[in-house]
Write a structure and sequence with these properties.
single chain, 149 residues, mainly alpha, three-stranded antiparallel beta sheet, 8% strand, elongated
Amino acid sequence: MKIEEAIQQKRPFRNNYQMAMVNLIYTNNWVTDQLRKHLKPYGVTMKQYNVLRILNGAGEPITTSTIRARLLDKMSDASRMVERLHQRGLVVRNICPGDKRLVDVTLSAKGVELLQNMKGIEQSMDDIFDKLDKEEAVVLSELLDKLRG
C-alpha cells in the first residue's frame, strides 16, 4: 500500500523528501507494532529484548555504559532497564573488579533460558519483511545506512 493511501493523504506531498520522511516514520511505527506483538507473550519490551540480545552477543560481562552505547534506542535508560531485568532474575550484576564504580552485567541462567525459548520468534520477525526478497533487503539496509551518513 502506498503511503498516501495508508495515511489517507488528500494533497500531494511537498516533495519526495517529505514523502520519504513520512513513509519512514509510518513504517517504523508499523514494524515496531509488529515486533511488540511477537514479544508480548514473553513479557519483554523491545528495549529489554535489545538489552538481552546485547548481553547474549557480548559473551562476557559488560558494563551498563557499554550496553548504553550498543542500544538501538539511544534515549533508553540502560541502568533502569538492567535493574528491571535484574529484578526479574534475567541478568546478574557484579561490581567490576577493575573499577569499583562500574557494574558488570551478564545474562543469568533464567535470561539464557528465556532467549532460548524466544528462538521461534526470530522467524516471525523475519516474516515482517517477507514482501522483500533478500537483495531488496540488502538495498533497503544500504539506503538506510546512506541516509544516516
